[in-house]
Amino acid sequence: MRLELITLIVEEYDAAIEFFVDTLGFDLVEDSPSFTNDGRPKRWVVVRPPEGSTGILLARADGERQRNAIGDQVAGRVGFFLRVNDFASAYRRMVDAGVEFVTEPRIDSYCEVAVFLDIAGNRWDLLGPPIG
Residue 1 sits in which domain range? Predict the structure, then answer.
C-alpha cells in the first residue's frame, strides 16, 4: 500500500506548475485536459519531487469554498514536508529563486529544518538528512 497523490488547491495551474517545477525542481508528471463532475473543462496536473513516489495533484480552485482554502489547507500548520539530501544547497537555491521562508534554518533533534511557503501560502518544512 502507498499514498499515490495528495491534492493541493491552487489559484492557477500555470503559476503553480512554474513554482513546483521551475522553483522547487519537481518533475511535471502529467498535464492533461479533464472535466469536472458536471462536465466543465479542467486540467489534471500532477507534479512530484525527483525520486519521490507520492505526487501532488495541483487542483485549480472551483467555487468560493475552495478559493477560501487556498493557502490554508491545513489551518495554518505545516502540512507538507520536503526532504532533501543537501539542505544547505537546497535552501540557498530556493532563497535565490525567491521562495519565502518564514523561519531561519535550525537544527532540531531529528534534522536541519526551515519553514517555507508554497505559491498558495501553505507551510512546508524543508528537511535535511536525518541526524543520527
Answer: 1-70
